[in-house]
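Hi C.,

You asked whether I'd gotten around to modeling the 365-residue construct. I have! Everything is below, sequence then structure, no commentary in between.
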Amino acid sequence: MTPTATPRTVSRRDFLKATAASLGSALAPRVFVPHLAHAARHQIVVCSWGGSYQDSQREAFFKPFEKETGIRVVDTSQPDVAKMKAMVDSGNVEWDVVTTGLATVYQLQAQGDYFHPLDYNMIDPKALNGVHASQRDRYGLGTIYYSMNISFRTDVYPKGKHPRSMPEFWDVKKFPGGRTLANVSGLFMTLEHGLLADGVPFDKIYPIDIDRAFASLDRVKPQVVKWWSPGALPIQMLADKEVNLAIAYSGRIQKIREEGVSVDLEWNHGTISSDFWVIPRGTKNFEGAMKFVAFCMRPDRQAHLTRLIHYGPTNQDAFQFIPAERAALLPSAPQNFEKMLLADVKWWAQHRPEVIKRFDAWILK
């Protein structure tokens, strides 16, 4: 899952469309065009989430990679799950590298063979020394960390007098007024927030006790003005003083604070997730794609990205290139990371449909 967009499950209709496309492709004649094959070896198509994130990637990754390797980067967006599945099923894969959540990878791999295993022999082992094992998967490498945190208006709750934990965020007597929390549809970890508010320690969150999580959400539900999606909504609600408390993306809070809005965040009891670089099966340039992924894992490249946007590097060695005052604003800085819960994407890949169904029914009660 990402901060600005979220994967969706593949519907029966999507599956039937993809199957029809696959049959049509199999029956159609294939024509080999030499100059197109040559071009494919000298360029890669990278699909990401667009917006300011992709603008930052362009400066930190795409342009420097082109300059260093001579391989042209064509970037596009958005990495829709159904579209990616249909590409692979039809044999007409347009994207060589995609950034997406690992839960998406697990969901698709459960349905078939949709991603190339990465060739770790093509990556300098030293470049991965600072990358945690959770960010090194057979099918992908973590590219950024992002987090969701208790956020508040500082003109209502001055720093130090704000909710410092999920139990306090849930405490409507000590901290009265409306709140906004995330709808679970986008793997927003609202169930985890509920369990943290109920006193469950980090190491006991997974596997999630769904009944207990919803019982906790019942307690705060009357004070929730809106269950948000997408991620821009709680930012706007805080800026407009529609609410004084929110669960929101740290990067967005940091950005509007720098723009002069009276907001801040609490790292304690935040939830942290990551996006991954993956390579769809059927890429036209696997070697170029692997070179790109390896390039993006370098500490200096990840450090460059943090100068442009408030996402944390997955390679801890990047912090040697990041000034201390900037590092303090990033979710994967050690002093911030240790206060937050890391998402268990395997659990969500298995249980997301049932959780969404229950949440959608619960919210209407």
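If it helps when you're writing up: The longest strand covers residues 263-278.

Thanks,
B.
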